[in-house]
Specification:
Shape: elongated
CATH class of the largest domain: Alpha Beta
Oligomer: single chain
Keywords: ATP-binding, GTP-binding, Kinase, Nucleotide-binding, Transferase
Number of helices: 10
Distance between the termini: 59 Å
Number of domains: 2
Structural class: alpha/beta
CATH architecture of the largest domain: 3-Layer(aba) Sandwich
Pfam family, one: RapZ-like_N
GO molecular function, one term: kinase activity
């Protein structure tokens, strides 16, 4: 029987993940009281013929008994109970935004601000994150992308490395993305904006791609960037990094940056050991402003 403990930061998507795990065949119980965890494991083991996959949601809502979880997990391990821990996380700024959008109170905030509750929750959950078999940072994930990550772990049984990479194109005139980990400036390349017939197109169009990639500098840049990332990514994984945002910028975020972000995405797509997605933050802004 596969037994998964699903936990993580409040607002990181645990309720959504529980529903997704039900959809892929797990028998799920959310917010199980800590003192009942071992008894629940015992009961599900007796029903092992019927229950092949079980997931239990545990979080800070358990109140005072949450502090007992450390000892309960140790006792289960000593008794030969096999379990895996899936920890959902997100950046503090993202969690605050989600709470403000839903107008919900953080379970540890009391009468104080949401960020104070998040700070306290991180301290109390630190031991669980350290023990986690899988960590998914949902800061940049859409619902379908979270489902894809869960499928990788629990259906495809891939060797999951806990790192999710976002390749992000942007325009410098609209500001550098605040969540960038690595920023690359490709304004050294000739700009299609000034070529007749190309201004209205984007880096998703073949005409722009052919124009940008005809220059040797573009290909050399991609070769060197790919080589550097092949060195960095395994080290980020070893260090325990969960989220990596690679931002590629040009003037307006419409032509050169989009083309090179797309090309980098193609090169990294065949690699294993991390999740990957691409976003074009500013690709439509010139059109919206009538420029």
């Amino acid at each position: 029987m596969k037994f998964v403990i699903l936990t993580g930061m409040s607002g990181a998507g645990k309720s959504t993940a529980i529903k997704m795990m039900e959809d892929i065949g797990f028998y799920c119980v959310d917010n199980l009281p800590i003192p009942l965890l071992e008894k629940f494991v015992e009961l599900t083991t007796l029903q092992s013929a019927e229950l092949q996959k079980v997931a239990v949601g545990i979080d800070i809502r358990s109140g005072q008994s949450f502090d007992e979880l450390h000892g309960v997990l140790d006792h289960m391990k000593d008794n030969g109970v096999e379990y895996e821990i899936l920890f959902l996380d997100a950046e503090d700024s993202v969690l605050v935004k989600r709470y403000k959008e839903t107008r919900r109170n953080h379970p540890l905030a009391g009468g104080e601000r949401v960020d104070k509750g998040i700070e306290e929750e991180r301290k109390r959950l630190a031991f669980l994150k350290e023990r986690a078999d899988y960590i998914i940072d949902t800061s940049q994930l859409l619902t379908r992308e979270l489902k894809a990550e869960l499928d990788k772990i629990f259906i495809q049984n891939q060797d999951y490395k806990n790192l999710f990479i976002t390749i992000l194109s942007f325009g410098f005139k609209y500001g550098i993305p605040v969540d960038s980990d690595l920023v690359f400036d490709v304004r050294f390349l000739p700009n299609p904006y000034y070529v007749e017939g190309l201004r209205a197109k984007t880096g998703n169009d073949k005409e722009i791609q052919d124009y940008v990639m005809q220059f040797q500098e573009a290909n050399v840049f991609l070769d060197k960037l790919e080589d550097m990332l092949e060195f960095l990514i395994p080290n980020y994984i070893t260090e325990g990094k969960n989220q990596l945002v690679i931002s590629i910028g040009c003037t307006g975020g419409k032509h050169r940056s989009v083309t090179l972000a797309n090309e980098l995405y193609k090169r990294l797509s065949g690699k294993k050991g991390y999740g990957l997605k691409i976003e074009h933050r500013d690709i439509g802004k010139d059109a919206l402003r009538g420029k």
